[in-house]
Design goal:
Blueprint lengths: L5 E7 L13 H8 L4 H22 L30 E7 L2 E7 L4 E7 L6 H7 L2 H5 L4 H18 L33 E5 L5 E7 L7 E5 L1 H4 L15 E2 L2 E2 L1
Parallel strand pairs: 1-7
Antiparallel strand pairs: 1-3, 2-3, 4-6, 5-6, 8-9
């Protein structure tokens, strides 16, 4: 029997509207007030809003009624990975540059990551993040961010974040389909990783801890974000998917 699908929802940061913020909880709103730069605040806000919208759609509830637990396992803060207690729905969110992405599935713990290509790629960063096989097959920034996104997605799914040396996580060179070759925190036969159809200048990946392959379905989040879930929409966002790829 095939695992349940993983739904990946894409949005652009300029789709954020004032009415979206009304569904956030007190802890989420307080966290947003601590951001120094508006662009960072808006990305985080839209990620929290989209996660609630996706969960509400799957659970048949209102976005503001979704209980999101972001407890950190290492401190009393509310900045851990999002958990929806008692729902059986696993979620993950990521944002970079102009894009926000949320993944949701019932197949197992999930991690998603999207990364914008850096304008410069230092040698130290490449050496510290890539294993020997990955480094040998990585010749440019596009390949590097693809490797990085794969690793981030896996670590999010496992619930570790970047708490282990990235060079110890081997998912293969960027020119090959991702496959777990080395990582002490997960069994290769219980890890499904796939690259996402990111826009030019970006790379993305999603990881589900389940015997794969897990069907991955991509969605434009515009209609969801500008639906009746948030009251009367102030503007309609345009499609972010075109020909099977993000644009």
């Amino acid at each position: 029997m095939r695992p349940p699908p993983c739904d990946v929802w894409w949005a652009r940061t300029d789709w954020l509207r004032p009415e979206h913020l009304t569904v956030l909880g007190a802890a989420e709103s307080e966290r947003l007030r601590r951001y120094r730069y508006p662009a960072d605040r808006d990305r985080s806000a839209l990620g929290a809003v989209l996660l609630r919208a996706v969960a509400a759609r799957a659970l048949g509830s209102a976005p503001g009624a979704v209980a999101v637990d972001r407890s950190c396992p290492s401190c009393p803060g509310s900045h851990g990975r999002p958990v929806l207690p008692g729902t059986g729905l696993y979620v993950s969110t990521s944002h970079s540059g102009a894009f926000v992405v949320v993944a949701a599935t019932r197949a197992g713990p999930v991690g998603v990551d999207v990364e914008e290509e850096p304008s410069r790629l230092g040698t130290d960063l490449r050496v510290g993040a890539l294993g020997p096989r990955e480094a040998a097959g990585t010749t440019d920034a596009a390949g590097f961010v693809r490797c990085w996104a794969r690793k981030e997605a896996l670590l999010k799914a496992v619930g570790m974040g970047i708490t282990v040396p990235l060079a110890e996580v081997d998912l293969g060179p960027p020119g090959e389909p991702p496959r777990l070759r080395r990582f002490p925190g997960a069994r290769p036969d219980q890890v499904y990783v796939t690259d996402l159809p990111a826009a030019e200048g970006y790379a993305g990946a999603v990881c589900v801890l389940a015997p794969g392959p897990v069907p991955v379905r991509h969605h434009d989040a515009g209609p969801l974000l500008h639906s009746g879930l948030f009251g009367e929409p102030s503007v309609t966002g345009g499609p972010v998917l075109s020909g099977g790829r993000v644009r």
